[in-house]
Amino acid sequence: MIRKSTRMLRSYFHLFFGPAFRLTSRFPEAFEICKEFRIGREKMLQIANALTKEIQLGLARETHPQAIVKCFLTYIQDLPTGRERGKFMALDLGGTNFRCLLVNLTDGAVMQSTLKSFAISEELMQGPGTDLFDFIAECLAGFCKEQNIGNDRIPLGFTFSFPLQQIGINKGILRRWTKGFRCEGVEGKDVVELLQSAIDRRGDVNVKIVAILNDSTSTLVSCAYSHPDCRIGLIVGTGVNACYVEQTSKAEMLDGYESSQKPIMIINTELGAFGDNGSLDSVRTVYDKTLDIESVNPGSQTLEKCVSGMYLGEVVRHILLDLMRMGVLFRGMRPDEMQTKWIFRTRFISEIESDPPEVFHNARVVLYHLGIKTDDLNDMACLRYICDSISLRSAQLTSCAIVAMINQMNVESCTVAIDGGLCRYHPHYRNLIEQQMSILLKNASAYKIVLSEDGSGLGAALVAAAFANK
């Protein structure tokens, strides 16, 4: 007798690939593995409610020190007004590259925007913090000279997308590195001071860092520029994080929160750590646990490791290795390339899922890159199904996070700004989020999902404009 879960998996498979392939009979092992990545509605509701409670613990002064989801203050209590004007810079550091952005605002309108990206080497990611910030300052100085603003005093907003405890709008303490960074001498330090010192040591540019924020906050601010009802900023890229607009009266970590004249405060949840206390153990698989052990930060950033682009490809690689060891996939081929950790990039998932139904051009190219030469359409359909399963769980957990923040704000409608590699390049990710939210919310259509355009850059520039003279 076929169990209900297996019937659901079969229906899902036929929906995407048609009846030409019968993977339930040819690859039952793959179906059994992928089953472990599916989360039912009741479990999703439990996760969303648990996260809402964790947010409340992070907001409260008494429980904040022990909270897993820290809910740090951003000190941003105003959204864009449309009256911003002048030249402002943004520096966006959040992964294996960083970006410099120059924005010219006139009465709130973006008249001109110039962007340049710089790659960060593995050596810089693992070396001393002074080397990293000196490199950033060098690139920033070169960008300023190219734009002929080397002598101008330019306010800069610094988007720093790592767990950060802000103690002011331009003061931020790095709690811990994530995303593969391990630079010594930075954790526990004010990263604004470290970067400003590197800039000042050069003496060839007149840039002043007036604000620091993370990419989710910058995304929210950028989207609020054109969608005034934006209340949530979400990043699902190399890492995962979210921020939302809270009532200042609930932001107990702010001195004088009860008497503040500003009604709102953007809260940086740092929700990537959700689950570090075991609250996600019921949806974690043996593959998640193996990945965690092999990561540079075992036992931390649990949600991020189940959701974000840095990790999803590695989960797929471990599943494929198991199936190949069983001799049921790719005719038992075990190329050396597949033994290399992290070689299965998350972008491969997006590419594989971009093929039309029953077409496997991208899958064939990805497999060739990994040393697997096959024309077996069943093998490639199985690969795509595995990718679909990993993507869906990521979207399910992301939807739980959005619903948790909606519950906390208790709003009947709002715009949710999203950005990051998965949101931007995965062919179905946004639709999956909307689909899963409709399962969790009775009035899901009242919550609009908007892909933010260069949120982490423009948002930082807008915040710099707001605080340039403060």
UniProtKB/TrEMBL annotation:
Enzyme class: transferase
GO annotation, biological process: glucose metabolic process; glycolytic process; intracellular glucose homeostasis
Residue span, Hexokinase C-terminal domain: 231-465
Membrane-crossing residue ranges in chain numbering: none
EC number(s) reported in the record: 2.7.1.-
Protein's name in the database: Phosphotransferase
Pathway participation: Carbohydrate degradation; glycolysis; D-glyceraldehyde 3-phosphate and glycerone phosphate from D-glucose: step 1/4; Carbohydrate metabolism; hexose metabolism
Similarity comment: family membership: Belongs to the hexokinase family.
GO MF annotation: an example: D-glucose binding
Sequence ranges assigned to domain Hexokinase N-terminal in this UniProt record: 32-225
Gene Ontology CC, one term: cytosol
Xref: InterPro entries: ATPase_NBD, Hexokinase, Hexokinase_BS, Hexokinase_C, Hexokinase_N
PROSITE patterns, alphabetized: HEXOKINASE_1, HEXOKINASE_2
